[in-house]
């Protein structure tokens, strides 16, 4: 009986058996920083370039942001897919679910209500046009 | 099935699982609890993001995001916060190995970069207010100042927390309580950077490229 196999808290120092195989923590943070810088630079480039189809830029920016959040979670917060990190991932999954419900649900409901607010008379239509 | 044989087949040198070994150490429990708090904080930000996304076109004839936002400032702010997140990670490595000088150095760089971020943000807010783009000008600006201001408030609290932790470290040394608090601080700081990733993408980049 050496050390109990406890779950690992996010951002916690590595356990003893992880030390042997895992790369050094300094390397992990440095890789995370470099990848995050690359993704940030790509985001800023994509927002300003004229090379891309404008309709796709939104989706691309969203994908880049989600990718960078994932990089932060894995390389900075050390939330991994390992068995000792199950509790952290489950809590994160629930948080992501609520975030998705709140953001997507709000936008959906309000967009729907906006459409229902459209009156046949011309006065509210001019209100609609004046963003 | 013969229970005695089954028990004999369990390797003796295997470590006990978490359910057999009793409660986890306080270090793990505290950090996990703080992780739950951070997720609830992110859910609060999600509500602010949702209100911003709903109100972003309601400018009431006032200035739009494309007219107000300066991408160079945002890029410098983003770089400051990202690098401060990195130095905060290096600081937590120094804490784990019990090195005083590296911890202070990491904390100092983290603090300076966080303060630079905050100064740039306050300057941006002041320049917007100076040209009449105040929170009461339009629903879009109300949502903008609430969302970005809430993040800035978190950064301010983080800076105060970091300063307090450095005083505690100087007075108390690397006690387990100080180590736990520093671990929670680095979680907090990394989470703020994650929120900022969503913020600069949704507010600034999508606002400008529209």
Note down, in words, how this protein is organized.
The complex is a heterodimer of chains A (131) and B (210). Chain A is an all-alpha fold and 131 residues long. Chain A has 2 domains: 19-78; 84-131. Helix content of chain A is 70%, strand content 0%. Chain A is built from 5 helices and no strands. Chain A has helices at residues 16-21, 25-48, 54-76, 86-116, 122-129. In chain A, helix 2 (25-48) runs antiparallel to helix 3. Chain A is flat, with a radius of gyration of 22 Å. The model of chain A has no long low-confidence stretch (mean pLDDT 82). With 210 residues, chain B is an all-alpha fold. Chain B has a domain at 69-210: Cytochrome c oxidase, subunit III, four-helix bundle (Four Helix Bundle (Hemerythrin (Met), subunit A)). Chain B has helices at 3-9, 26-55, 65-68, 71-96, 100-130, 139-172, 176-208. The longest helix of chain B has 34 residues, at 139-172. The relative contact order of chain B is 0.16.
Short overview:
The complex is a heterodimer of chains A (131) and B (210). Helices cover 70% and strands 0% of the residues of chain A.
Question: What's the structural blueprint in terms of helices and strands?
Answer:
The complex is a heterodimer of chains A (131) and B (210).
Chain A (H helix, E strand, L loop, with lengths): L15 H6 L3 H24 L5 H23 L9 H31 L5 H8 L2
Helix pairs in contact in A: 2-3
Chain B lengths: L2 H7 L16 H30 L9 H4 L2 H26 L3 H31 L8 H34 L3 H33 L2
Helix pairs in contact in B: 2-6, 2-7, 4-5, 4-7, 5-6, 6-7
Give the C-alpha Rg of chain A: 22 Å
Query: What is the end-to-end distance of chain A?
Result: 68 Å
How would you name the oligomeric state of the polypeptide chains in this document?
heterodimer
**Helix share bin of chain A:** over 70%
Q: Predict the CATH topology of the domain at 69-210 in chain B.
A: Four Helix Bundle (Hemerythrin (Met), subunit A)
Unreliable sequence segments of chain B: none
Q: CATH class of the domain at 69-210 in chain B, please?
A: Mainly Alpha
Structural category of chain A is: mainly alpha
What is the count of helical runs of chain B? 7
- Computed Rg of chain B: 23 Å
Number of domains of chain A: 2
């Amino acid at each position: 009986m050496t050390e109990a196999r406890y779950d690992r808290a996010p951002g916690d120092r590595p356990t003893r058996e992880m030390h042997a195989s895992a790369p050094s923590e300094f390397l992990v943070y440095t890789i995370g920083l470099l990848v995050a810088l690359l993704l940030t630079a790509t985001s800023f480039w994509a927002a300003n370039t004229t090379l891309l189809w404008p309709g796709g830029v939104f989706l691309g920016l969203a994908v880049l942001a989600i990718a960078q959040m994932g990089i932060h979670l894995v390389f900075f917060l050390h939330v991994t897919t390992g068995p000792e990190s199950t509790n952290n991932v489950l809590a994160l999954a629930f948080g992501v679910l609520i975030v998705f419900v709140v953001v997507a649900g709000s936008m959906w409901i309000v967009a729907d209500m906006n459409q229902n607010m459209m009156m046949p008379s011309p006065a509210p239509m001019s209100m609609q046009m004046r963003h | 099935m013969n229970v005695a044989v089954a028990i004999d087949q369990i390797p003796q040198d295997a470590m006990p699982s978490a359910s057999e070994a009793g409660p986890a150490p306080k270090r793990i429990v505290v950090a996990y609890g703080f992780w739950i708090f951070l997720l609830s904080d992110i859910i609060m930000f999600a509500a602010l993001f949702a209100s911003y996304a709903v109100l972003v076109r309601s400018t009431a004839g006032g200035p739009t995001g494309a007219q107000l936002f300066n991408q160079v400032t945002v890029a410098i702010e983003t770089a400051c916060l990202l690098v401060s997140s990195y130095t905060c990670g290096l600081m937590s490595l120094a804490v784990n190995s019990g090195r005083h000088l590296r911890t202070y150095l990491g904390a100092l760089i983290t603090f300076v970069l966080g303060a630079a971020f905050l100064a740039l943000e306050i300057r941006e807010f002041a320049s917007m207010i100076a040209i009449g783009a105040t929170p009461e000008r339009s629903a879009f600006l109300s949502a903008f100042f609430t969302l970005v201001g809430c993040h800035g408030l978190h950064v301010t609290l983080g800076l105060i927390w970091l300063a307090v932790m450095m005083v505690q470290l100087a007075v108390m040394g690397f006690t387990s309580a100080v180590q736990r608090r520093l671990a929670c601080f680095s979680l907090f700081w990394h989470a703020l950077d994650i929120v900022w990733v969503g913020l600069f993408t949704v507010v600034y980049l999508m606002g400008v490229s529209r």
